[in-house]
TrEMBL record:
<dbReference type="InterPro" id="IPR018060">
    <property type="entry name" value="HTH_AraC"/>
</dbReference>
<dbReference type="InterPro" id="IPR020449">
    <property type="entry name" value="Tscrpt_reg_AraC-type_HTH"/>
</dbReference>
<dbReference type="InterPro" id="IPR011006">
    <property type="entry name" value="CheY-like_superfamily"/>
</dbReference>
<dbReference type="InterPro" id="IPR001789">
    <property type="entry name" value="Sig_transdc_resp-reg_receiver"/>
</dbReference>
<keyword id="KW-0963">Cytoplasm</keyword>
<dbReference type="Pfam" id="PF00072">
    <property type="entry name" value="Response_reg"/>
</dbReference>
<keyword id="KW-0805">Transcription regulation</keyword>
<dbReference type="InterPro" id="IPR051552">
    <property type="entry name" value="HptR"/>
</dbReference>
<keyword id="KW-0597">Phosphoprotein</keyword>
<feature type="domain" description="HTH araC/xylS-type">
    <location>
        <begin position="302"/>
        <end position="401"/>
    </location>
</feature>
<feature type="domain" description="Response regulatory">
    <location>
        <begin position="6"/>
        <end position="123"/>
    </location>
</feature>
<dbReference type="InterPro" id="IPR009057">
    <property type="entry name" value="Homeodomain-like_sf"/>
</dbReference>
<protein>
    <submittedName>
        <fullName>Response regulator</fullName>
    </submittedName>
</protein>
<dbReference type="Pfam" id="PF12833">
    <property type="entry name" value="HTH_18"/>
</dbReference>
<keyword id="KW-0902">Two-component regulatory system</keyword>
<feature type="modified residue" description="4-aspartylphosphate">
    <location>
        <position position="58"/>
    </location>
</feature>
<keyword id="KW-0804">Transcription</keyword>
Amino acid sequence: MNQKWKVIIADDEFIIREGIRSSIDWDRLNLQVVGEAEDGEEALELALKEQVNILIVDLSMPIMDGLTLISELRVQLPGCKVIIITGHDEFAYAKRAIKLSVDDYILKPVNPGQLMEVLAGVSRKLEVESTNEKILDIASKQLDKNVSLLRERFCLEWIEGDVSEDEIAGQLAFLQMPERLPDMVGIVRWPEQSKGKAFMSEKDRQLLLFAIENVIEELIGETSDAEDYVHFRDQTGMIVVLVWGSRDTTIGTRISEACEKYLDLAVLVSFQLNEGNVNLPELYIAAKTMVNREARMSDFVRKAREMIEQRYSDPELTLEFVADELGVSSVYLSRIFKQESGQSFIGMLTHVRTTMAIRLLVGTKLTMHEIAEKTGYDSQHYFSTSFKKVVGMPPNLYRKSFLEG
């Protein structure tokens, strides 16, 4: 037997309370009378104490009338069902009670058969509501349990362009994700061999993939401005990372360095910024193209790029300097760098310096002179000229625009 629904009978006349209690087969309806009250104040106190499910209440009671009692219950115990008892001369009064969402009413003198029928209906309503709550609770727990998997499946369809704009909006809301395009899309490509040692089994392969994903989670989790993120594997087995809130593309370098340090594994990473004029499949293709291009890079082009990313703050970092470090001619490095990376050496160096300058402009209170020094420029004037050429406005105006929203 299910736990019985709790009932309170509130009427200032003892004979009416006793008549109601004795005339109903409560067990048959799965109900239990847990108390009686002769005034509204006592009824409210008892209802809250017992957390009752049904209140049978006379509208005309001393101290606190039935309407006031019902109003208080609607605030403090909104799930309680209310059945009012009223006389013919109080029917206009009863109409006001109905506006307070009472469940039913009975005219005096109380007919036991009619009251039995009303109570049966209210009991069925409680059973249905209880069942629905249990179903919703189970569904909610299942959703919480599987939300990561559901997010991954949806995002996989999203990057492939297999969902409509309406479906995208609905799924983002349902999966409690930011309802807009991600700010960054990243691709992590990992080799089938680590340091020349072939993986022994599929189990080893999956374990390594999980390890890389753990690195990604930890590093993005440490990014203070990251609002949300999702990572999953695409059809080719590469790891795709979608990030909302952060535009810090240096996360790719940190992921590469952490995998090298902790997993003894060289991974290739590319993060593409959403500039507001593309869709997700295009961002995904751009990031994938970049990482695949990087996979075909010769060692010294990759080393040249690493030198840019690590030593961009050095004003002595030039094409000639890097070529000399790598033991090749500057003409050859310039040609092969553009051919393999899709960007000139100077173009990539300027891009990295500008990206870092933007981070310092919006994330610090450093002066223009200090930012120029930290991003590898000999003078504030040269920094301002270069920044304006790339961004379209001087750095001080960029900072002001950002601060003003």
